[in-house]
């Protein structure tokens, strides 16, 4: 495929935007080459500035669960935009989407909308600290909760891809309050809790990790984590920015039947507009300003365009719950097909999948935590990435990312993808 115009646009962008991108994960530093510039997208396909069509397995890193430019979402935004784009005053649609979200997600009474997943997680942790009166938090190596200071300690996703899991600029004072645990290792969590008795406000976790590839929780791990938190008066925060409204209507809380104390959302809940949210039971949420002491705010929070997109998206998912089954079936089909062609071509691999999240690791050991995820063969991944790109299949330019399956993908698209992987596998 030819990427002449994309390369020229990137060269221009680099002059005025650091690295030419507004978020590092879009860069191709991890795989080599220059990023593709998108012109437009519809359904399962991206169309780039050179006129190439790509089957999209990133889907804006998760939000486009029903495909690009999904009509009910686009129409809702257009209609709202005609009536003004921001007021900084309450609007009815904020209550409508809040009511719908509260009805879909188990175990939450109130929800507050913000502008990104980062803001949601950052605010959830502040709320947990304010509510418990304790300072320290536990996060897991390889989990990513946005780019707020306390989370850039062994962070996954782009931070790992670019070799900066611990970012300069995060003060020692902040870093010392973030304790680091190993994903899927409950004994490690217990030891940290024991060593920091009565000092830990919350444990924040991706209930299915998606930022070191896809890593499911091992059997009993989330249950044990819930128990440790309850016994020690620690709030359990599920970062459902990826999993929320994707794995089930009620996200991972519903899928695994575990009650978190606070749930964070982003991506799907905004239908492709900049939205995040955090939610909990009344007792916790009433700790927030203006009725409680924990401050949190936003000029554009609950923005009417964002709420219109989110409401249209959640309404679709709520009215058609069969979408979640369809997504899981398509992902399972892809899993089986990819495993078959990689095995036939003697490519060492492990595939992890939960619902419509899937990732391929080029290593045959089980991938259960950040260390095992980091063992994947990155040279194989780079060749795999570029081979697929040439064939018109776009996956994330990093081995630490999950593929997000959209319901707009047809079985023909999946067969095309599996055939492309078969061809690429012969070259690896
Ligand atoms: N939490 C998780 C689990 C995420 O995957 C992400 C982003 N990929 C975030 C938080 C941060 O969200 P945002 O990029 O919208 O700030």
From TrEMBL:
<keyword id="KW-0663">Pyridoxal phosphate</keyword>
<dbReference type="InterPro" id="IPR015424">
    <property type="entry name" value="PyrdxlP-dep_Trfase"/>
</dbReference>
<dbReference type="GO" id="GO:0008483">
    <property type="term" value="F:transaminase activity"/>
</dbReference>
<keyword id="KW-0627">Porphyrin biosynthesis</keyword>
<dbReference type="InterPro" id="IPR005814">
    <property type="entry name" value="Aminotrans_3"/>
</dbReference>
<feature type="modified residue" description="N6-(pyridoxal phosphate)lysine">
    <location>
        <position position="267"/>
    </location>
</feature>
<dbReference type="InterPro" id="IPR015421">
    <property type="entry name" value="PyrdxlP-dep_Trfase_major"/>
</dbReference>
<dbReference type="GO" id="GO:0006782">
    <property type="term" value="P:protoporphyrinogen IX biosynthetic process"/>
</dbReference>
<keyword id="KW-0413">Isomerase</keyword>
<dbReference type="GO" id="GO:0042286">
    <property type="term" value="F:glutamate-1-semialdehyde 2,1-aminomutase activity"/>
</dbReference>
<dbReference type="InterPro" id="IPR049704">
    <property type="entry name" value="Aminotrans_3_PPA_site"/>
</dbReference>
<dbReference type="GO" id="GO:0030170">
    <property type="term" value="F:pyridoxal phosphate binding"/>
</dbReference>
<protein>
    <recommendedName>
        <fullName>Glutamate-1-semialdehyde 2,1-aminomutase</fullName>
        <ecNumber>5.4.3.8</ecNumber>
    </recommendedName>
</protein>
<dbReference type="InterPro" id="IPR015422">
    <property type="entry name" value="PyrdxlP-dep_Trfase_small"/>
</dbReference>
<comment type="pathway">
    <text>Porphyrin-containing compound metabolism; protoporphyrin-IX biosynthesis; 5-aminolevulinate from L-glutamyl-tRNA(Glu): step 2/2.</text>
</comment>
<keyword id="KW-0963">Cytoplasm</keyword>
<dbReference type="InterPro" id="IPR004639">
    <property type="entry name" value="4pyrrol_synth_GluAld_NH2Trfase"/>
</dbReference>
<dbReference type="GO" id="GO:0005737">
    <property type="term" value="C:cytoplasm"/>
</dbReference>
<dbReference type="Pfam" id="PF00202">
    <property type="entry name" value="Aminotran_3"/>
</dbReference>
<comment type="similarity">
    <text>Belongs to the class-III pyridoxal-phosphate-dependent aminotransferase family. HemL subfamily.</text>
</comment>
<comment type="subunit">
    <text>Homodimer.</text>
</comment>
């Amino acid at each position: 495929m030819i990427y002449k115009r994309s390369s020229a646009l990137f060269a221009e962008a680099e002059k005025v935007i650091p690295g030419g991108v507004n978020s590092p994960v879009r860069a191709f530093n991890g795989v080599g080459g220059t990023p593709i510039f998108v012109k437009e997208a519809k359904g399962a396909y991206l169309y780039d500035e050179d006129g190439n069509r790509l089957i999209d397995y990133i889907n804006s890193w998760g939000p486009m669960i029903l495909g690009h430019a999904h009509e009910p979402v686009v129409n809702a935004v257009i209609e709202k935009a005609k009536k003004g784009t921001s007021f900084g005053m309450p609007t009815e649609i904020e209550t409508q989407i809040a009511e719908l979200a509260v009805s879909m997600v188990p175990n939450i009474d109130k929800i507050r909308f913000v502008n990104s997943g980062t803001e949601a997680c950052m605010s959830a942790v502040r709320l947990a600290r304010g509510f418990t009166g304790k300072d320290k938090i536990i996060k897991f190596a390889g989990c990513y909760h946005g780019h707020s200071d306390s989370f850039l300690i062994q962070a996954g996703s782009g931070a790992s891809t670019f070799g900066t899991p611990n970012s300069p600029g995060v003060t020692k004072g902040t870093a010392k309050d973030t304790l680091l645990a190993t994903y899927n290792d409950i004994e490690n969590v217990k030891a940290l809790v024991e060593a920091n008795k009565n000092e830990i406000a919350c444990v924040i976790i991706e209930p299915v990790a998606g930022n070191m590839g896809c890593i499911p929780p091992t059997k009993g791990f989330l249950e044990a984590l819930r128990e440790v938190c309850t016994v020690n008066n620690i709030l359990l925060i599920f970062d459902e920015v990826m999993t929320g409204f994707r794995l089930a209507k009620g996200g991972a809380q519903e899928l695994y039947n575990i009650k978190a104390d606070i749930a964070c959302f982003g991506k799907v809940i905004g239908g492709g507009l900049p939205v995040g949210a955090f939610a909990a039971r009344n007792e916790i949420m009433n700790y927030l300003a203006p009725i409680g002491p924990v401050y949190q705010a936003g000029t554009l929070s609950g923005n009417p365009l964002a709420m219109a997109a989110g409401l249209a998206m959640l309404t679709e998912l709520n009215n058609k719950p069969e979408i979640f089954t369809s997504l899981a079936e398509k992902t399972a089909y892809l899993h089986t097909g990819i495993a078959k062609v990689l095995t036939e071509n003697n490519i060492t691999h492990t595939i992890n999948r939960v619902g419509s999240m899937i990732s391929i690791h080029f290593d045959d050991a089980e991938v259960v935590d950040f260390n095992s995820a980091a063992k994947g063969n990155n040279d194989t991944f780079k060749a795999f990435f570029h081979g697929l790109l040439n064939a018109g299949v776009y996956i994330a330019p990093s081995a630490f990312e999950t593929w997000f399956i959209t319901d707009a993908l047809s079985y023909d698209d999946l067969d095309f993808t599996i055939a492309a992987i078969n061809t690429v596998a012969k070259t690896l």
